[in-house]
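Run L-lysine 2,3-aminomutase through structure prediction, thanks.
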Amino acid sequence: MPFSQSQQQIIDRFDTTVDHTRWHDWKWQMRHCIRDIETFEKLLAYSFPEKQRNDIERTIKKFPMSITPYYLSLIQSDSTDSIENDPIFKQAFPSVKELDIMDCDMEDPLHEDVDSPVPGLTHRYPDRVLFLVSNTCAMYCRHCTRKRKVGDIESIPDRERIEQGIQYIAEHPIVRDVLLSGGDPLLLSDEYLDWILTELRKIKHVEIIRIGTRVPVVLPYRITDELIAMLKKHHPLFLNTQFNHPREMTDSSRKALEKLANAGIPLGNQSVLLNEVNDCPRIMKSLVHKLVQNRVRPYYMYQCDLSEGLSHFRTSVGKGIEIMESLQGHTSGLCVPTYVIDAPGGGGKIPVMPNYLISWSSNKVILRNYEGVITTYQEPSSYVPTTCDRNCEKCNLELKLQEADEYKAIGIEKLLCDYEKNYSMTPSCHEKATKTSQVKEAVNV
Ligand SMILES: *Cc1c(COP(=O)(O)O)cnc(C)c1O
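Sure, done. The structure for L-lysine 2,3-aminomutase is below.
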């Protein structure tokens, strides 16, 4: 693939000892990641004022910097606008605002470490686990939700730790979906990742494996033919990536996505809604269109977490709903992600969207569409609700559902059950909640 103009400029500014002919080799990219201000300034022919330099130095001490030469080459500045307003720059380059810790900020807002039965594995939802198999990333995204772990040597998972995680999964037949994340799982060597996937595939109850990676965005050259050949052996395998801005969709990224899609790997995208990066309905619409053109299904749009050092990236929830309003109905349903807030304290992902259900009577529902047309849906008069005691012939004979405790209804689903005798749920802090209750978060009264 030929070099872009900005790539050529960066190459020309590297020391003459640097063998730039290997630019498209992902290991070369990793070896030449930009980790200090001087190199950044040199490669982009840019210079920061002295005061700002000190601020950036202080920030890097707490939250290190690493940018692949490839991602650096996407930064643009034109004569009318500072490089510092560039959405690529903002995701890659430290800001002193990261040192502002707000009262609401938390080191581990999603309780990934708290809800962790073995180190590096989070089992929050009944049937799936989050498995952190790598602590390295090609680029240290400034908005990383696991910022607490970035560059932290202590938390590099070794083989023994991975084996512990695999053993946990093997011992819990309820786990049918394993989500590999990190760090970036695709920064492991082909052989090492092959080993992890092979071990997971030996476990009969693991139905699907998902990989969460930002490699197609920040290091697309990692998607080599060898990697593809290895991944293909482990189907059904899904891959979710994280494009946040339409300018990240380059020819190199397209090529990487094409290889993955051609290997039969269903691709999804998890964007993070970021202040002054993509908090705009037009930018998001352009992004989702580019994703779908490259066979990537927009999966989630995340509200920015309450991790420390991210306050300048957060938008209001209203902005997210405004973006959803601009997508739903206005473009293909295939292009519309689910907007989620990952609840602090390990509450998991909660979907949020505009209200489409306006009112309801015993025989009619009033809805509004994306254009504002208000319409009615007549409820069927012939529909006879069946009473479900979760023990009818359909369940027992046709579905052969498993009887494990984990399959029992919980939460609101349980309140809706016809057999359920409890008619309310009370938060444990409520005075009605009995002190002797064994249930931690919420109790039935
Ligand atoms: C996001 C997440 C998952 C996967 O959630 P899906 O909604 O199934 O994509 C699983 N475990 C943890 C801890 C998570 O944060």
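The chain has 15 helices and 14 strands.
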